[in-house]
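In this section we walk through a basic example: taking a raw amino acid sequence and producing a predicted 3D structure, encoded as discrete structure tokens. The instruction is simple. Fold the sequence below.
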Amino acid sequence: MSEIHLIACIGDFSPINVTSISEKTGLTKGSITRISKKLLKLALIKRQQINDNKKEVYYSLTSKGRNIYVIHHRIHQEIEERFMNFLDKYTADELVFASKFIQDLTEWDY
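The resulting token sequence is shown next.
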């Protein structure tokens, strides 16, 4: 799952460095380095340096990585569409109540 989320993050914000990926995904820099090595070997992402800064490494997707990114994005869209269709059976008042109930339940200190 982390590999797919890393691909999604890189696809959304490319070119992006490890620090920014970490901030956006909540993954540690060490995890990102480990996962990126796998993705580099699979030719799903590529490393690059921008503005001749040898210290700063940026990642972007390869065409193979872009294909996976698009598929992942479509799956998310389909899930969201199915969820919205599910919610259509409820009135606006019922959704407001359900939202408030869930919020209160998660904050309840039993």
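Looking at the output, two observations stand out. Strands lie at 16-17, 45-48, 58-61. The chain has a mean pLDDT of 94. In the next section we compare this with other chains.
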